[in-house]
Specification:
Strand content: 15-25%
CATH class of the largest domain: Alpha Beta
Largest sheet: 9 strands, mixed
Order of helices and strands: HHHHEEEHEEEHHEHEEHEHEHHEEEEH
Number of domains: 3
CATH topology of the largest domain: Rossmann fold
Amino acid sequence: METQALSSAELASLREAVKARLSWETALTDEELRSVIESELFASRTVRALTAVERQAAVNRLFHSFRGLDALQPLLDDPLVTEIMINGHSEIFYERLGELFESEIRFESRERLEDLIQSMVGQVNRMVNEASPIVDARLPDGSRVHVVLPPIALKGPTVTIRRFPAQPILMEGLIERGSITGEAADFLKRLVRAKYNLFVSGGTGSGKTTFLNALSQWIPRDERVITIEDAAELQLRSIPNLVSLETRNANSEGKGRIGMRELIRASLRMRPDRIVVGEVRGEEALEMLQAMNTGHEGSLSTGHANSAKDMISRLETMVLGGADLPIGVVRQQIASAVDVIVHLSRYRDRSRKVAEICEISGMRDGEVELRTLFEFEEEGERNGVIQGGLRKREGLIHTEKLRFAGLGREAER
């Protein structure tokens, strides 16, 4: 990882010198821009105190400030960095191979960070300012960007970037990593093919989006799929007939917002075979459940929760937040719409695994009833790595969709 060879003041001075030599009428190639930067750097007194490695780092930093993402570019160029956290212009942390580190590189000023934020959100037609200080966006490579500005963020502009691999991880890759067993993966493959409605739950950073991408590889290629997200990050590359929808924030006048509820309603008129909602967070949960209940089987979604049981409670809360319905009606809606919940956890050894796979078997005593089909069983640690595996507990009760799809009876009751 590159270090910061020059002070913020020195970087700012050199950048201004380079800008003074650039012509707005002539577009420079990357090589020509690097040549201008090197010329200015070697003409300055600062270069005399730098080693060859530090000089190259300074050239790269200046180049990235013109053509890249400034202080973030070295981190974005590292494929092993999965998350970048900016707590104001002078603090940058990143996650690499599951461990957190503090970067030696800093933004030279708060203004430079603010300029970069506006550039990032502007690329996807988003807006963020003091009046609307929170926004979700994405980078051209698909990375998810979450921005919070002052006065909400007390230490200065705060940015969190969640990165995804250039090629989506397939289920085979998750099996190799120990995130799921081959037996459980084959079980889920049959459920997806048979059009069971699945929810993937888990905490922050548990791998929900990655797992949803992996599940989508089993959707038949002849189906029409609609994806709905706050910020597009799903990579359903095996689906030819794919429509991707993304929410839109309100404009400066507070108008023009298009939320998840509106997009789910719109998707129902687009003749979908399946609807995939990146993450259900609020009142749109009711529309999602209704879609699952009205012929759009095989739909997939994710949600934040601490367990499969907690996902049920979260869905109840989300539905009640957008509709004045009796709790019994809400629970019945959930029980009839969702077939299986796959819960993911991030363990203390930083591994991400399927913790449980549960079937919603129906209602009992006014509550949604869950049956544990698979459960991760921990068997201690070895060299700091958790040992254990995903064990089968019970068989699937509702096998009608499997039989209808010609996939046979999955399990005895």
